[in-house]
Amino acid sequence: MRVAMRATMRVAARAVMRAAARVAARVAGSCPTVCVRMALVLTIALCLGTLAACGSMPDSVIVVAGSTSVQPYAEVLAEEFEHQHSENGIDVQGGGSTAGVTAVESGIADIGMSSRSLKEAEQALWSIEIAKDGLAVIVHPQNPIADLSLTQVRGIYSGEISRWSELGGVGTQIHVIAREEGSGTRSAFEELVMGNHRITPRAIIQDSNGAVMQLVADDRNAVGFVSLGLVELHPDAVKALRLDGVEASGRNVVSGTYGLYRPFLFVTDGEPKGLTKQFVDFVLSAPGQQILEREGLVPVTADREDEG
Question: What pLDDT was estimated at residue 229?
C-alpha cells in the first residue's frame, strides 16, 4: 500500500513538473535572457521541491532543459532510463534551445537540449549530436498546395507572397505561423530557408512545435514549420509539403535529398561525468537510438551505416 501511494505521488509530482515547465517555456519565449534563468530556476526549484515533499526524491537527479523540439524525445528516453535505474531521476524541461544553453552555462541544468548548431560564442561547451530531425513546412490537409520551392517558402515568410492564389491555390490570405525568437526550430529555419531575409512581423508567433501544428490543423489558410518527427507521428493532422519536388521524410534526410534538417544536440559544461554521462551514453546506445528512430527521428547510427 505504501509503495503504491509513493508511486502515485511520484506521478503527481511529475505532472506538476510538466506544468511548471510549460510556464517556464512561455516566460523564456517572451524574454530570452535574464527571464530565462529566473524561469528555469523557479521551475527546477518547484519540481525538486515537489518530489521531495512527496517523499519520492531519487538518490541522484539531473536536470535536462532546453529545446521544446527535443523535449518530448528526451522525456521518452528519461522514462526508459529511470525504468532501468529507479534510484536515479531525470527531470526534463523545455524553454527553448537558447534557454537550454544558457541554463548549462549558468549551472542551472546538467544537460542542455538544442535543436540548432551551437553559435560561435557557445563553442566552449561540450556537445554531442543525438539524432537528426527534418524541418517540415506544413499546411492544412485540405489545402490544394502540395509542392513549393524554397524560394516560394522564403517569399511567404518574408511577406513578399501573401495570398495562396499567387502559388496556384485559392485566393485567400496566407496565415503565417512561426516560432519565437530563441527557438532552435526558428534558428534552423532562418538559416536553411530565410538566409538574409527576415520573417515578416505579421507572422503569428507560437512557443512550441505542438502549438504551431495545432493552429495549422485548425486553419485551412495557415502555413507553419515544425519538427518532421512530430509530423510523422501525427500524419493525418497536417500535410507536409514537398520542397522542390522532394518529399519530407526521414529516409530523404538520411540520403541527403531533403535539405531541411537540423541536429538535435545534448550540451554540457565540459565532458559529462557521473549520472550525466550514464544518461548520455544510454541515449547514444543502440537501445536509445532505436527509441529515437521509433519516435520518428533519424538516429546518428543511420549516418554511420550510410557511410559504411
Answer: 87
Tell me the domains of the chain and their CATH numbers.
2-132+263-307 (3.40.190.10), 134-261 (3.40.190.10)
173 class by beta-carbon count within 10 Å (0-12 exposed, 13-18 middle, 19+ buried):
exposed
Which residues on adjacent β-strands are paired with residue 119? none
Distance of CA 4 to the CA centre of its chain: 33
**Alpha carbons 220 and 142: distance in angstroms, whole number:** 7
Name which of 19, 59, 307, 36 is nearest 183 in CA terms.
36
Grid cell listed for 90: 531525470
Identify whether the C-beta of residue 102 lies closer than 8 Å to the C-beta of residue 264: no
Q: Which of 41-50, 98-107, 109-118, 163-172 has the lowest mean pLDDT?
A: 41-50
Q: Which three cell numbers stand for residue 48?
A: 525538486
| DSSP assignment string, 34-46 | HHHHHHHHHHHHH
Helix residue spans in the chain (DSSP H): 2-30, 34-53, 71-84, 97-105, 150-158, 184-189, 209-218, 228-233, 250-255, 274-284, 286-294, 300-307
Amino acid found at 162: S
Q: How far is CA 93 from the centre of its chain?
A: 11
Q: Residues 190-235: pLDDT tens digits?
A: 999 999 999 999 999 998 899 999 999 999 999 999 999 889 888 8
Which letter, b or e, does each residue of 52-62 get, where b requires 16 or more Cβ atoms within 10 Å of its Cβ?
A: eebebbbeebb
Instruction: Please report the pLDDT score of residue 76 as a whole number.
Output: 96
